[in-house]
């Protein structure tokens, strides 16, 4: 299972979709999830999403920084990367100019596991950020750069901490899915064990076990969530 921490990015559901397309179960949780709740979920890896905030804003979203001491691999994307760097003693500064759009990514480290094995040395990526990383914490090295962003990707392989300043989950990053695949399977050691069919089967069994011989009242709005709930209930109990 992969845990995705939602820092407010418009792409959060897309991150989850990419993970599920790779047949790995994932769960999205808000940043105020407790460290104890994270431990109870026993994730094989954690993805920190992007988001529109700056880490220096008074109410910027933050997750318990103890996640970096759990020994669980972490991938920070955009804001998630900046949050990780700032928590661990690095320095993030305001960019002279906000960067939004395509960028040519030059990968400087593709060996030794990590995010980039099998990815083309020079490829395109999609940037969307107003802050940039100025100083890295001890143990981190730069693994990719662009013309405007010196720190486009980093890693601390000893602690299995990785970060991308760009968005690998969007189609505008052509090899982004390969990068996520490397994180899931090479770094986290996940197995391809989840499909939508298995989710439906498990959900139907759980509904039957929960309902027993009782009756159910469903409030159906016509939206996606309640409609899916209605279909699953129908399959489970008629």
In short, what is this structure?
The protein is α/β, with parallel strands linked by helices.
Describe it.
The protein has a nine-stranded mixed β-sheet with strand order 2-1-3-4-9-8-7-5-6, sandwiched between helices. The radius of gyration is 19 Å and the shape is elongated. The mean pLDDT is 93. The protein is an alpha/beta fold and 238 residues long. β1, α1 and β2 form a beta-alpha-beta unit. The longest helix is centred in the last third of the chain and has 16 residues. α5 packs across α6. It starts with a strand and ends with a helix. It contains six helices and nine strands; from the N terminus they run βαβαββαβββββααα.
Summarize the topology.
Blueprint: E1 2-5, H1 12-21, E2 26-29, H2 35-41, E3 45-48, E4 74-77, H3 79-87, E5 91-107, E6 122-135, E7 141-145, E8 153-156, E9 161-164, H4 176-187, H5 196-211, H6 224-237
Parallel strand pairs: 1-2, 1-3, 3-4, 4-9
Antiparallel strand pairs: 5-6, 5-7, 7-8, 8-9
Helix pairs in contact: 5-6
**Strand ordering within the main sheet:** 2-1-3-4-9-8-7-5-6
Contiguous helical run count: 6
Beta strands, count: 9
Helix-strand topology string: EHEHEEHEEEEEHHH
Helix percent band: 25-40%
List keywords for this structure.
elongated; alpha/beta; 238 residues; nine-stranded mixed β-sheet
């Amino acid at each position: 299972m992969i845990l995705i921490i939602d820092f407010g990015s418009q792409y959060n559901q897309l991150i989850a979709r990419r993970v599920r397309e790779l047949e790995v179960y994932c769960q999205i949780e808000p940043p105020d999830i407790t460290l104890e709740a994270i431990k109870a979920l026993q994730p094989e890896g954690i993805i920190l999403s992007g988001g529109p905030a700056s880490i220096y804003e008074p109410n910027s979203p933050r997750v318990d920084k103890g996640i970096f001491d759990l020994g669980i691999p972490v991938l920070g994307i955009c804001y998630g990367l900046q949050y990780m760097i700032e928590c661990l003693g690095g320095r993030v500064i305001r960019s002279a100019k906000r960067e939004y759009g395509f960028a040519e990514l030059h990968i400087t480290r593709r060996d030794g596991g990590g995010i980039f094995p099998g990815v083309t040395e020079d490829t395109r990526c999609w940037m969307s950020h107003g802050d940039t990383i100025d100083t890295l914490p001890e143990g981190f090295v730069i693994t990719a750069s662009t013309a405007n962003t010196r720190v486009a990707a980093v890693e601390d392989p000893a602690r299995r901490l990785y970060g991308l300043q760009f968005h690998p989950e969007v189609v505008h990053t052509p090899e982004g899915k390969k990068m996520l695949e490397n994180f899931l399977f090479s770094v986290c050691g996940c197995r391809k064990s989840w499909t939508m069919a298995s989710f439906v089967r498990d959900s139907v069994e759980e509904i039957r076990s929960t309902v027993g011989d009782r009756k159910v009242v469903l409030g159906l709005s016509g939206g996606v969530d309640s409609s899916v709930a209605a279909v699953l209930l129908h399959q489970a109990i008629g």
